[in-house]
Amino acid sequence: MATPWAHRYAQRTHIIKSSIIRELLKLTERPGVISLAGGLPAPEVFPAERFREACQKVLTEAPATALQYGPTEGYRPLREQIVAQMSRYGIKATVDNVLLTSGSQQALDLIAKLLINRGDRILVETPTYLGALQAFNLFGAEYVTVPVDDDGLRTELLDGALRSGPKFMYILPNFQNPGGVTLSLERRKQLVKLSEEHGIPIIEDDPYGQLRYSGEHLPPLVVLNSKNENEAGYFDGSVIYMSTFSKVLAPGIRLGWMVAPTEVISKLVQIKQGTDLHTSTFIQMVAYEVSKDGFIDQHVQTIRRIYRERRDVMLKALDEFFPPQVTWTRPEGGLFLWVTLPQGCNSERLFRAALKQDVAFVPGEAFYPGGDSGGETGAHMRLNFSNASPEMIREGIRRLSIAVMEELEHAGALVTA
Prior knowledge:
Helix content: 25-40%
Radius of gyration: 22 Å
Mean pLDDT: 92
Shape: globular
Number of strands: 14
Number of helices: 14
Structural class: alpha/beta
Strand content: 5-15%
Distance between the termini: 69 Å
CATH topology of the largest domain: Aspartate Aminotransferase, domain 2
Largest sheet: 8 strands, mixed
CATH architecture of the largest domain: 3-Layer(aba) Sandwich
Low-confidence stretches: 229-234
Order of helices and strands: HEHHHEHEHEEHEHEHEEHHHEEHEEEH
């Protein structure tokens, strides 16, 4: 007789839900569907030949190291390379402040294990990254939400939200997923100031920071933290910074990193040891070989050029095909933009109409802690411009506009000249 499993699951499993994005991607695999849904980098920009050469070199010159267990903190030459790269953005770290992770999603999981007790409140932007909500939900997090606009988190609303005593703030300052918006310099300074006044730390998630296509680079929150300025360096500060190789090399290598005070890194190392002992040494060594000697900087320039073109094509197509009642963000970088339909529209219904036109997007409610399929803010959808050719982007927006017009009419929100 088979052992019944369901009643043996831990209580925390009752709140687990599959990623709506992963489920939607299954629907978009059928022939003819143009997917503007997933946050996928363009496969044609993957440096496959460079990876092939790096794999050969690592397995030829250092197979015993590459295929053996390694330190939990990560491969030291790669950590040193990360420190050097971050210093160009003003982030002052040492190798002892860096922990390599199996993608930035593992970093979020480790942070949740380190900081969240059931019932703890976490301050997040709304909308915010779905993967972070999944990681935090598993440990029973509750949420304090502050909305974003075209200049990022609305810091004028932050002081009151912080008085509720959240455990930490989770912020994506650059080309936010899903909104595509960037936190302005003035608001960055205000955010850090309020963080220090209230004694509430920040988790700064920066997967897209290098993918800027227009505008000026803005200093990371971790650089603006005033405690960075003492002789001991940044890592007396109250910002944990995290990033990833997924968007600048390839997501398949599952390689990210965190930068934190050494005492925090020590705790994270202990937690990671109970998770996977260490991130693949082979992958870390290959990533180091691929990215060294200035290659990653050259490669990022190529990615920027390609994605800038695709962003511009999508924005132009939206201007051409979408009705004036619909608005969208105009990102300066990253992979996404955010579309808002009027009140009364429903993003789930719109998604079904879009699939009939063989085009897909991610409905906006996935990015709100409590869901939001329309509500007071109207219906939303996240569009990705990195993973389709310019021709497919234009055709996808044309198809999507048909579904949008249908939804506006259904909701009584269609205004004709």
